[in-house]
Amino acid sequence: MKLRPIFGLAIAAAAVGLAAPASAQGQLSLYCSVQEEWCRPMAATFERETGIKVNMTRKSSGETFAQIKAERQNPRGDVWWGGTGDPHLQAAEENLTAEYRSPMMKDLYDWAVRQAELSKFRTVGIYSGALGYSFNTRTLAQKGLPEPKCWRDLANPAYRGEVQVADPNSSGTSYTMLATFVQLMGEEQAFDFMKAMHRNVNQYTRSGAAPARAAATGESLVGITFLHDAVTQALTGAPVKLVAPCEGTGYEIGSMSIIRGTRNMAAARRFYDWALTPQAQALGEQAKSFQIPSNKNAKIPDAAPKMQDITLIQYDFQRFGSSAERERLLARWGREVRGGS
Which of 8, 99, 124, 258 is most buried per CB count within 10 Å? Predict the structure, then answer.
């Protein structure tokens, strides 16, 4: 798997930041698709370091993509930061985002640069993380259920009503899951599996990270999320165990894009460059988010899932970052999985 040596690279010393004196002027409308706890310090720190006023809106990846599409004739946002890369690639394909080649590109891992190249430099990778699930060990013991280790276990009737996952229409996490199953199993078997797993799903949430919180509190036995979201819960002392499924799994390249038609291009580029610095990327760990940062000089959080220990598929970002493929798969999921019960 080509990703493994990339993620295993040693981290170099911190690079010099790009923050300007706080006397700078301007404003920025930031659409943020990570957790609120990370969105807020990103906006506040950039504003403090540059003097550029930031208006931040937090929504999931799918919701933000839909908003940018709806606003395409009159864009209200300047930068879309965070969230899974597939909808960022779809936005690029639909000419909703602007080309920009940051001078920081030379400091990024190859996987982040490939994301930029794939989009014709209309997006860029800012972090990465593997898909998986977590389960509540206390609830598992109380109910006397077998320990799940693979994706196929989540279709076991023993877990009826015990699985929580986001809706792929609103959640980039869950769209990554759908695309992962298609690549792992083939499309027909993937949909058969999701229909079987559907009988075990207690709720389809709007947010991709919500199922990790549900597993941590015992609201649900199993929560399907990116593994770094489950790490956040485990570090609070929640009785959860993380599972990198035995069959292999997909992963995300969280991305950042400048919205086409922005009225604040100078501020947008300033944020874009700053967000790719080691100093800005370090805010993730401080916010208890444990993705792998894209800058080679940024410290990988000690608690981040060890990508070299996870069996990762060769995720086809070009195919599943296509708007036509996304719309087709989501329509089929709506008809046959959620609508088929």
Answer: 124
| Domain layout of the chain by residue ranges | 3-128+251-305, 131-250+326-338
Q: How far is CA 192 from CA 152, 204, 244, 311, 320, in A?
A: 11, 18, 21, 23, 19
Q: What is the rounded distance in angstroms from the CA atom of residue 245 to the CA atom of residue 298?
A: 28
CATH says 131-250+326-338 is which class? alpha beta
Residue 282 CB burial class (10 angstroms; 0-12, 13-18, ≥19) = middle
- The model's pLDDT over 43-58, given as tens digits with 9 standing for 90+, comes to 999 999 999 999 999 9
> What pLDDT band is residue 340 in, cutting at 50, 70 and 90?
confident
Taking CA 273 as the corner, what is the angle to CA 271 and CA 278, rounded to the nearest 5 degrees?
105
User: How many whole angstroms from its chain centre is CA 38?
Assistant: 13
pTM (2 decimals)? 0.88
Query: Does residue 105 contact residue 99 with C-beta atoms inside 8 Å?
Result: no
Residue 294 clears pLDDT 60, i.e. is over it: yes
Torsion sign across C-alpha atoms 83, 117, 77, 260: negative
Q: Which residues of 291-320 are buried (b: 16+ CB within 10 A; e: fewer)?
A: bbbbbbbbebbeebbebeebebbebebeeb
Provide mean pLDDT across the span 283-302. Answer: 97
What pLDDT digit, counting tens, does each position of 189-227 carry?
999 999 999 999 999 999 999 999 999 999 999 999 999
pLDDT of residue 341: 61
Q: What is the pLDDT of residues 99-118, one digit of tens each?
A: 999 999 999 999 999 999 99
Residues 293, 75 contacting (CB under 8 angstroms): no
Give the residue among 190, 310, 292, 302 at the shortest CA–CA distance from 243: 310
Name 292's bridge partners: 128
Choices 3.90.1530.10, 3.30.470.10, 3.40.190.10, 1.10.10.10: CATH for 3-128+251-305: 3.40.190.10
**Which residues are CB-neighbours of 301 under 8 A, at least 6 positions away?**
284, 285, 290, 291
